[in-house]
Write a structure and sequence with these properties.
eight-stranded parallel barrel, two-stranded antiparallel sheet, binds ligand PBG, 11 helices, about 40% helix, TIM Barrel, alpha/beta
């Protein structure tokens, strides 16, 4: 055959393949989320996703000591509390698990960036991210609560706050509150396009959330693509330092759109249901776990994410060593 282009020339050996590789997975761009609970000596794994850890503050040193060595630079903290109420009181507890965990990590791991989830759902008795009046989410009152929560975390030493609630105007309000209290360098990682997805169940199970109803009046409709750009514009205007798409693998088109339009770094959240599917698929013999994990994370980066939040960050970083 008389072919001018033979694409296989660039695939003929490992050296040339490595030279022309377009996307790279590196541990520094993986963010490791985990849950902190009350008590001592607690270290639990989610039954569908063993890499999703819920531990007490005294176990954090053990959990994170390999993380730093593996090249992980950032963690995201979620709080797990027993006592929940309609006002999410637990979110503002100066001695709650998240507040204590931030101080613990900052004192033992000076090079880690500590991000904290900013949302009320671990603390409300109905499992929603917002405060309610009758059946209605109170947007502006919820935003005030999120500002208070962000300030508490910044005071404890969190370098990044990460609002995951999808209330309107929260990025601007949190930026204003942080600046007014001289936390000008505290970063905001915004869940910019967060969809009302079925993929959050292992997460909710860990938090013991029995959600009443659904989150469709604040999280985005999985059918919408253009609307994510509106959220992107608003978040950037309001001061988001990093924008995030969530979930990741079923939303690669949204990540690709952000790649074109976002002036700030892009993160994607490889959520609990996505991680659990990898576990189950590998257990069923459908694919090799290690290869499936790396291919999933690579694909999220190829679509345009700079950073990937994943419970499997440590496992992936080990494979990348
Ligand atoms: C809620 C929140 C959720 C997740 C992160 N923050 C669940 C939800 O919106 O109900 C899900 C993460 C995951 O499934 O891994 N503030």
């Amino acid at each position: 055959m008389d072919l001018i282009q033979r694409p296989r020339r660039l695939r003929q050996n490992p050296s040339i393949r490595e030279m022309v590789r377009e996307t790279h997975l590196v541990p520094a761009q993986l963010i490791y989320p985990f849950f902190v609970c009350e008590g001592r000596g607690v270290f639990k794994r989610s039954k569908h996703l063993p890499d999703l850890i819920n531990c007490s503050v005294d176990q954090i040193k053990k959990l994170l000591s390999p993380a730093e060595k593996l090249g992980i630079k950032a963690v995201v903290l979620f709080g797990v509390v027993q006592k929940k109420d309609s006002r999410a009181s637990g979110a503002f507890n100066k001695n709650g698990p998240v507040a204590n965990a931030i101080r613990e990590i900052r004192s033992h791991f000076p090079n880690l960036q500590v991000a904290t989830d900013i949302a009320l759902d671990p603390y409300t008795d109905h499992g929603h991210d917002g405060l309610f009046k009758n059946a209605e989410v109170l947007n502006d009152e919820t935003v005030e609560a999120l500002c208070k929560m962000s300030l508490l975390h910044a005071e404890c030493g969190a370098q990044i706050v990460s609002p995951s609630d999808m209330m309107d105007g929260r990025i601007g309000a949190i930026r204003g509150a942080l600046d007014a209290h001289d936390f000008k360098n505290t970063m905001i990682l915004s869940y910019t396009a967060k969809y009302a997805s079925c993929l959050y169940e292992p997460f909710r199970e860990t938090l013991d959330i029995k959600l009443k109803g659904d989150k469709k009046s604040y999280q985005m409709d999985p059918a919408n693509r253009r609307e994510a750009l509106k959220e992107l514009m608003l978040d950037v205007d309001e001061g988001a330092d990093i924008v995030m798409v969530k979930p990741a693998l079923w939303y690669l088109d949204i990540i690709a759109d952000f790649k074109v339009h976002s002036p700030v770094p892009i993160a994607a959240y490889h959520v609990s249901g996505e991680g659990a599917m990898l576990e189950l698929g590998a257990k069923a013999g459908i694919f090799d776990y290690d290869r499936a994990l790396l291919e999933s994370l690579l694909s999220i980066k190829r679509a345009g994410a700079d950073l990937v939040v994943t419970y499997q960050a440590l496992a992936a970083a080990k494979l990348l060593r």
